[in-house]
From TrEMBL:
Chain residue ranges for the region called Disordered: 113-133
GO molecular function, one term: G protein-coupled receptor activity
One Pfam family hit: 7tm_1
Name of protein: 5HT6R protein
GO BP annotations, alphabetical order: adenylate cyclase-activating adrenergic receptor signaling pathway; positive regulation of MAPK cascade
Species annotation: Lanius ludovicianus (Loggerhead shrike)
Gene encoding the protein: Htr6_0
Location, primary (coarse class): membrane
Length: 133
């Protein structure tokens, strides 16, 4: 056995507060992930089961197959609804870029500031294929 060096323990209430804060975040993250995965399985599992059944026996009507395909597509429309409901950071980011979600009095970002923020550098000289080769 290797003796452990004594460490400075956090104060009781501070340790509890740190644990509660992180456990609440972990619980919320797992709840969001559970809802997203649950919605995915509810939307796409019937499609995949029917797809296998169609390959084996060819007994699935085309209309039913189309309905299940569109059910899967509806899952993609549910994600932008689920994320803002459960993730505050996602809601804030969308509020910056979508006019319908922006709070009144909040300035609209300009195209230049967005491109500068996303480029990770300043203005660049135009590059051509000749310069690259």
């Amino acid at each position: 056995q290797v003796p452990r060096a004594p460490s400075q323990p956090l104060a009781g209430s501070e340790s509890r507060r740190f644990t509660n804060k992180h456990s609440k975040k972990a619980l919320k993250a797992s709840l969001t992930l559970g809802i997203l995965l649950g919605m995915f399985f509810v939307a796409w599992l019937p499609f995949f089961v029917t797809n296998v059944a169609q390959a084996v026996c060819g007994c699935v009507p085309a209309g039913f197959f189309d309905v299940l395909t569109w059910l899967g597509y509806c899952n993609s429309t549910m994600n932008p609804i689920i994320y803002p409901l459960f993730m505050r950071d996602f809601k804030r980011a969308m509020g910056k870029f979508l006019p319908c979600c922006r709070r009144s009095g909040e300035p609209r970002p300009s195209a230049i500031s967005l491109s500068m923020r996303n480029s990770n550098s300043g203005p660049r000289a135009a590059t051509s294929l000749k310069n690259v080769l």
